[in-house]
Design goal:
Layout lengths: L5 E4 L2 E2 L25 E5 L9 E8 L7 E5 L2 E2 L5 E3 L5 E3 L3 E2 L2 E5 L8 E4 L4 E6 L16 H10 L3 H15 L1 E11 L4 E9 L1 E6 L5 E4 L16 E3 L3 H8 L12 H5 L2 H5 L1 H14 L22 H8 L27 E9 L5 H4 E7 L8 E4 L14 H6 L16 H14 L1 H35 L3 H22 L2 E4 L7 E2 L10 E8 L6 E7 L5 E9 L3 E8 L6 E9 L2 E9 L2
Parallel strand pairs: 2-28
Antiparallel strand pairs: 1-21, 3-4, 3-16, 4-18, 5-10, 6-9, 7-8, 10-11, 11-12, 12-13, 13-14, 14-15, 15-17, 18-19, 19-20, 22-23, 23-26, 24-25, 24-27, 27-28
């Protein structure tokens, strides 16, 4: 590490306690790269090293965004209960809905991802279509399509059937999209078009498919229902619209018939698909070649292999750039608009609680470790959500204006700020970051995965509830470590000697003592603020020029209700916060 580089403790320190550890996540022809959202890789179980279905996804969304993690339990519903979707349509609710791990992006229609308690995992990739006047009933369906599939399906194929029925009943209210749906046995792509048309194809067990932001399904055979599903009039409608001419003697090609030409020809799409296929395939393609729907990999792939692809910036190709790769004029796989990346490892020989794992990297895959979130968890680690799951779904499109405020109690903002800091000095920071990711996180996680899961399984076979608790604690531990990792940012700073110490006593009853240390050379103003558990400021207890050395301040909380609070030190651009617990 360079001598001028130091490690700053930047933000909030959380505590967790459990048995695992005593200490404590080119320019396009006509479309800009910001208009391309998301990227996925689907791997059949016979194409992976361990026999798992592997589903990888980078979620791309421009602008200011927020990601919340929620655990939704299995829910029981009253007879006659309805879902009222965004544009007003009513859908009868089923008696029981599946438990979910839910990655929520408030105010967005097409950015949430799900893993349900059967391991069925769903995300999507924008795919613009030619359709501009598709039929809609009651405003059509968009946001709720994947949610309902995740809530009701026990397999990926069942999810396709459910989704297809909803599209045919209400119509899809966006230009087009491909839903990627996987379970521990197989994976499917479901491509929808504005209006009431859709088609789906199963990924062969021994092959891999790559989906940027254009349709990849080509020739179809709806009589082969083991491998294809879709609207019965998908070909006839294309003929009616003039998108396919059977007199041409060419086989019907869904991608060519329904795909938007600008999207199909965009370098941002072609380059990401081409780079990935050439990494994984024995056959090497030119960027303008007609790449097949799926291919047999040159070697069976592991979760780590797929993680490496999600971090790719066209290294060792003609599209590699110098400096910060996220500024590349050709959209990269790991891009400036990534909000999260995940790799779902889905194994049919283990109970779903253990065998289905969402390896997840917040904000930017190339600078964050992929941490395992097991399907069996019964709660989400503290700091990964701003609300409870009931409030989140009720307010998804009606959230308050301040949801994008960077509060110190929400992990995602520290992942965002970490990415911004690394991007500002990428060339000098990335080597240290990669070393920490590989040596401090992923190496340990993958080396211990089998032993840890065998322990879970042994407990699960005799005491399922205890196993769920252990799985949840293990996931919490690694999620908290990942958060802590991004609080230490390699940078050049004059603040190396600044410290804020843990309050004492803690927990405390009414009064506690806070100590901090500021170097003599520093001339700025010191602020110490108190925040409640959701990051709302409660009181400013110091705002003055500092005195050198260790300083002490008493905090009287007798007027506050019991609970978790945070105290934060701020000096210029340096911030540090710690947690304290008020008891009464």
């Amino acid at each position: 590490m360079k001598t001028k580089s130091i490690i700053i403790f930047k933000s909030i320190l959380l505590s967790v306690f459990f048995i695992f550890n005593n200490s404590i996540v080119i320019k396009s022809q006509s479309l800009k790269k910001e208009q391309f959202n998301c990227f996925s890789i689907m791997t059949g179980k016979d194409a992976s090293v361990d026999g798992s279905v592997i589903f990888a996804h980078n979620e791309d969304d421009g602008g200011n965004q927020l990601v919340n993690w929620y655990k939704v339990p299995q829910l029981f519903h009253n007879h006659g209960e309805e879902i009222i979707i965004k544009n007003g349509a009513h859908i009868a609710q089923v008696a029981v809905t599946n438990g979910l791990i839910w990655l929520e992006m408030p105010r967005t229609d097409f950015s949430d991802s799900y893993m349900n308690n059967y391991g069925v995992t769903i995300a999507s990739d924008q795919c613009s279509s030619k359709e501009t006047s598709g039929e809609l009933t009651d405003g059509g369906i968009g946001y709720w399509l994947r949610r309902i599939m995740a809530e009701r399906a026990r397999t990926s194929k069942e999810a396709v059937h459910i989704g297809g029925q909803l599209v045919e009943e209400f119509g899809y209210n966006s230009s087009g999209r491909t839903y990627c749906i996987a379970d521990p046995n197989e994976a499917w792509l479901m491509s929808v078009v504005q209006g009431k048309h859709w088609v789906a194809q199963r990924i062969p067990d021994n092959e891999i498919t790559v989906i940027p932001n254009f349709y990849t399904i080509k020739e179809i055979n709806l009589t082969d229902t083991n491998n294809f599903l879709g609207s019965s009039d998908i070909i006839e409608y294309a003929i009616q619209k003039g998108w396919y001419d059977p007199k041409s003697k060419m086989p019907f090609n869904f991608r060519k018939a329904y795909g938007n030409a600008s999207s199909l020809n965009s370098i941002h799409n072609k380059a990401r698909q081409w780079a990935t296929v050439n990494i994984l395939s024995e056959h090497q393609y030119d960027i303008n070649d007609d790449i097949p729907f799926s291919f047999i990999p040159k070697n069976k792939v592991s979760v780590q292999d797929i993680i490496s692809v999600l971090r790719n910036h066209y290294e060792a190709t003609q599209y590699e750039t110098t400096g910060n790769p996220h500024n590349n004029s050709v959209m990269t796989i790991c891009s400036s608009t990534n909000q999260y990346g995940f790799v779902a490892q889905l194994r049919n020989w283990l109970p779903n609680e253990i065998g289905s794992v969402l390896w997840l990297a917040p904000r930017r895959p190339c600078i964050q470790p992929f941490i395992p979130w097991y399907c069996g968890i019964d709660s989400i680690a503290q700091g990964y959500a701003r609300n409870d799951y009931q409030t989140a779904i009720e307010e998804h499109f009606q959230t308050s204006e301040n949801i994008y405020e960077h509060v110190p109690t929400l992990a995602f903002w520290d992942f965002v700020e970490f990415a911004e800091q690394i991007d500002a000095n990428y060339a000098n920071s990335i080597e240290d970051v990669h070393g920490k990711i590989k040596n401090h996180f992923e190496q340990e996680l993958f080396e211990k995965q089998s032993d840890v899961e065998n322990q879970f399984l042994s407990i699960y076979q005799t005491d399922t509830s205890n196993a769920i608790q252990q799985i949840t604690e293990y996931t919490d531990y690694w999620a908290t470590r990942a958060w802590q990792n991004c609080l230490y940012i390699p940078t050049i700073s004059e603040h190396i000697d600044i410290q804020i110490l843990q309050n004492y006593p803690n927990p405390f009853n009414n009064t506690t003592t806070i100590e901090y240390i500021v170097p003599e050379k520093y001339k700025g103003t010191v602020e110490i603020n108190i925040y409640d558990s959701i990051g709302k400021p409660v009181k400013k207890i110091i705002d003055k020029s500092h005195n050198k050395g260790k300083q002490t301040v008493k905090f009287d909380a007798s007027h506050l209700p019991k609970g978790i609070y945070y105290y934060g030190l701020k000096i210029d651009n340096y911030k540090e916060a710690k947690k304290m617990i008020l008891i009464k």
